[in-house]
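In this section we walk through a basic example: taking a raw amino acid sequence and producing a predicted 3D structure, encoded as discrete structure tokens. The instruction is simple. Fold the sequence below.
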Amino acid sequence: MNTRPIRFFHRGGVVEVGNLPPTTTVLQYLREHAACTGTKEGCAEGDCGACTVIQGELGADGQLELRNVNACTQFLPTLDGRALLTVEDLGGPEQLNPAQQALVTCHGSQCGFCTPGFVMSLTACYETHQAAGTQPTRQQLADALAGNLCRCTGYRPILDAGEQMFDGPARCLDRAPIMAALNVLAADVPLDYSQGGARFHAPQSIPDLALLRETYPHATLLAGSTDVGLWVNKQFRDLGDVIYTGRVTALREIRQEDGGLWIGAAASLEESWAALTAAVPRLRELWLRFASPPVRHAGTLGGNIANGSPIGDGAPALIALGADILLRRGATQRRLKLQDFYLDYMKKDLQPGEFVEAMHVPLPSADWRFSAHKIAKRHDSDISAVCAVLGLRLDAGVVQEARFAFGGMAAIVKRAAAAEAAVVGQPWTEAAAKAAAAALAQDFKPMTDMRASADYRLKVAQNLFTKLWLETTGAVPIGIWPSMQEVAA
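The resulting token sequence is shown next.
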């Protein structure tokens, strides 16, 4: 690799940065170096949305893809070869853009601190739907704004603005100059950026990534930065050398292969969950409640799985689906069941120089029934107290196979072996559901922490078997949480 500055499109042209540390966040760059102070710092952990910006890059079809992300957790070198749009790039006092004008008309801003973030998320939603020739429902708008918090207005006028911004003639961003610049940047050599003694490697092929990982086995492997960014922001950790996976095109692929979904480790959470939900519609609630759109656009499913957190919501779904994980070291690949990857708290079956290349998720047959639930204090953008994905394979009403995967109940995400054994070979009845619930106490001795007590975790997890029985027998699912739309009405 050749050392060169970071190059990206911003404020109408290509910007070069070569004098800032690799862990400088996009938010720090905007406010402290680019004089773009419309982007605000609220939580500095990707939770509040005050720092929301739009990132653009060319898709596989050569068209511009725009996604709202949090600037506070993204490191500046990850922008290399991409476009950065902030509130300063939208309409001004002479002519506001549709989202800005609708927020003014609907009185969607009060103190105004969070407003630029809402503008960027609404604009991303507007651009996506205008390009597709569609118009979002009020609930879809609420889902699109799940990563933006407002403590002043409530959300009703903001959702009103989201609806109203589609009323007039379409006024979209001018994509031509952005695409032209990105096509020029695509010819740059892979980024190998060094400043202050630390290096940021951005390989563009799996062999190059594998070579770097073998050469620097102790370097920090960076994917979406939605977690690693907090190591710097909140823990003030020195990452040392960084190897970034986000420019390896082959790792971002999602395809059908060997009777299942092959999901590359660098595929975004949003695209990965969309593919999983298309195969298993019961995962939709988990998809929408997995963090927020800005986090899902930046984060990766491979990163979520490799992290190994016991409260990561990706692992319960993939384990319940019988997924394998594909590991790579140099030219050697190793494949194992995902449930065997986790050994103990934050300890994984991962050798030095090895990295996650992909996950393979079998497509379930028609005799499988699934139920997925995320239990948290807050409906949107919150960390799970309990996450459960429960799967049954039925034949003539008898359970042939069961996979009950839980997060938040132990030091690792794991299957409930005793609960599974209680139902396999039994008719799927309310009594069987109760037997599984009772057996769950043998599988888990959950902890008490700030999110939930041990008793609550066990009780709510047991209650989910009743909900599984109701859902799989055709009863109307029991609603637990009101939607953002219902709260704002």
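Looking at the output, two observations stand out. Residues 446 and 455 are 8 Å apart (CA to CA). Confidence is low (pLDDT under 50) at residues 476-489. In the next section we compare this with other chains.
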